[in-house]
# Entry
Amino acid sequence: MGGILATLEDPGRVVLLGMTPEGGDSDLDADYGWIVSSAAADGPTRRVVEFLEKPDAASSQRLMKRGALVNTLILAARAATLLLLYHRAMPDLLRRLLPRLSRPEAWARDVLRRLYRTLPSRDFSKDVLERCTDDLSVVAVPPCGWSDLGTPARLRRYQEQRAGECLRRALPTAGLPSVRPALA
# Structure
């Protein structure tokens, strides 16, 4: 809720949800983006002073020790604000895209497909958010069990953890108490 209220108060800002890392070094996934916020809070939000998408492991460790938050890519923003960030970070992309979308026939599926094939591939976090930190705020989410399931390896780890938890909970009722200590 804090992110939505912050965008109402300052519609020119993008408010990110930043997750507080929970698992120590196990949270140092190379696929994570990290958000460093200012010390001064403006209600539940803080200004972003640094945003790093997928830094190396050593940088991730330093960021986590500094109190950086994991980028969830959950955000609240007005569409006009996001367009402005794209304009600042990648004006050529918008120059190619927007005029073509102003005609109703441009929204046909095959026309869009052809158009998107001509555009360069970009990473929103790296190519836009990293370049526009002055326009970003963050709400720190306390540890809550959040997990980023954005890669097959992370999804597999999560499924294995969940299976182990379910098995440990089920064993006492399954009449197999002698097996339980081996799983703990």
In short: Residues 97 and 116 are 9 Å apart (CA to CA). Residues 178-184 have pLDDT under 50 and may be disordered.
